[in-house]
Amino acid sequence: MSNFNDIVNRIVAGVAGLTLLDPNSDVIPVVNRKEVEKNQTLDPPYQITIDADPNPDKVTPFAFGWFKKTYLIRVDIIAPNDGDPISNRPLYTNWREQIVDLLQMPPGPLAGLTVVIDLDVKPEGFLPRSGTGLLYDEQCIAVLVTTVETA
User: Fold this and answer.
1) Fewer beta carbons within 10 angstroms: which end of the chain, N or C?
2) Domains and CATH numbers, the chain
3) Which contacts qualify for 94-102: CB closer than 8 Å, 24 or more apart?
C-alpha cells in the first residue's frame, strides 16, 4: 500500500504552516500540482508549488513482500522576475533556508510516519539560468523520501 498521498499532504501542510511572506507582507500560497507550472494570468505572483509523481523513482525488494520505494517530491519557490534577480536574493534565500530546515530537521512534517526510513533534502542550483527568459524565477528543493511498503 502506498503512503504517497500522506507524504505529499504532510509536506504541503508543513510548508504552508511556515506562513512565508512576500515583499508585500502577503502569505505565499502553497499549491499541490502534477508538475511545476506558473499560469501568468491565474496564479499569484509568488507561490510555492509542490509536485511529485505517485510512481516511485526507485523500487527495491526489502523483505518478504516489502519494498523500499523512493519518491522524488519537488518543492518549487516561484517569484516574479523583474529583470533583477539579485535584489531579491536575500528574500529567496530566507524562504529556501526555512523550507530546507523544516524538511530536514526533526520533528518535521513527516515525523510519526513509520514507513519513512530515509529523507534526503537537496536544494538545486540557486536561480538557474535556464529560466532567465521567463517572467518568473523558480528555485527547486528536491526531497527524496524512502519508505518501506508492501507491493
Assistant:
1) N
2) 4-150 (3.30.2000.30)
3) 95/20, 95/28, 95/48, 96/123, 96/126, 96/139, 96/141, 98/18, 98/20, 99/15, 99/18, 99/20, 99/48, 99/75, 99/141, 100/141, 102/14, 102/15, 102/18
